[in-house]
Design brief:
The protein is of the alpha+beta class. The strands form 3 sheets. A 3-stranded antiparallel β-sheet has the order 5-6-7. β3 and β4 form a beta hairpin. α1 runs antiparallel to α4, α6 packs across α7 and α8 runs antiparallel to α9.
Length: about 260
């Protein structure tokens, strides 16, 4: 908890130009936050100031202390906060791995052999880390990939929670009045990854000597002109196209 408090307080530190020295230098002006940081870290204020606002330069076997500008001091402070946070995460991961590892395997010399021997008895905690659905001021190939991944997750959710239940009900003779096609996003997936989908058209355009973003968009709109999920608006520029995702409409920039 102390480490997280330190990270947050480091973000509250502010720096300004030190007018008392010649050349460039920085002063820490958030005295209250700075005092709390040094108290939590258990180090002196002078030592902390030196670590953040100065750097050690080695040249021709000599060591020189150079003053940092306010902007450089801000970067130095942020780097310290990131390192502390990184180590906190490493400690948490290490403790989680230790707690979830089979107790009867602890103490073995060969960790690899222990894992191999106990892999059938091991418990597993799987964490899925992914970006959420994105729609930005400018949506490029990166956003298309992220939203494509989210479409697959949505499709998996639909299959596991709706279609499989409906199939079970139908098998048991239970009548239900629910149309899964209303929430089915398979058409969007087919638009992106199908035989003549956006990815296929993009790959083809990339290998053409004269391939370009406008040509890619033109072909995509021509091939999928009847699609309910590929949007072609009059205000679109030649390299822009829209896709109706399960979460909403996104306009992409193919440049």
């Amino acid at each position: 908890m102390k480490a997280l408090c330190i990270v947050l307080l480091l973000g509250n530190l502010t720096f300004e130009l030190d007018q008392s020295v010649d050349g460039e230098g920085a002063l820490i002006v958030a005295d209250d936050a700075f005092e709390k940081v040094t108290t939590l870290m258990g180090i002196g204020q002078d030592e902390m100031k030196s670590a953040i606002t100065r750097k050690l330069v080695k040249a021709r076997g000599e060591e020189l202390v150079a003053r940092l500008t306010p902007a450089q001091s801000r970067d130095s402070c942020d780097a310290l906060a990131k390192e502390i946070y990184s180590q906190v995460v490493d400690v948490l991961v290490c403790k989680m791995n230790k707690r979830t590892y089979p107790a009867h395997s602890v103490g073995r010399v060969d960790q690899a052999e222990a894992v191999k021997a106990d892999e059938k008895n091991m418990g597993c905690i799987s964490l899925l880390d992914f970006f959420g659905f994105e729609t930005l001021e400018k949506n490029s190939f990166e956003q298309l990939c992220i939203n494509y991944a989210n479409e697959h997750l949505q499709n998996r959710y639909i299959i596991d929670n709706f279609q499989s239940v409906r199939d079970d009900y139908e098998f048991e003779g239970v009548e239900i009045e629910f149309d899964c096609s209303m929430i089915n996003n398979s058409e969007v997936l087919n638009l992106v990854e199908g035989r003549m989908g956006l990815i296929s058209i993009m790959n083809e355009e990339c290998v053409r000597p004269s391939g370009n973003s406008s040509s890619f968009v033109y072909k995509a709109k021509a091939i999928h002109k009847d699609s309910n999920h590929l949007v072609n608006e009059k205000l679109h520029r030649p390299w822009e196209f829209g896709v109706k995702h399960f979460a909403g409409l996104v306009t992409y920039d193919a440049t």
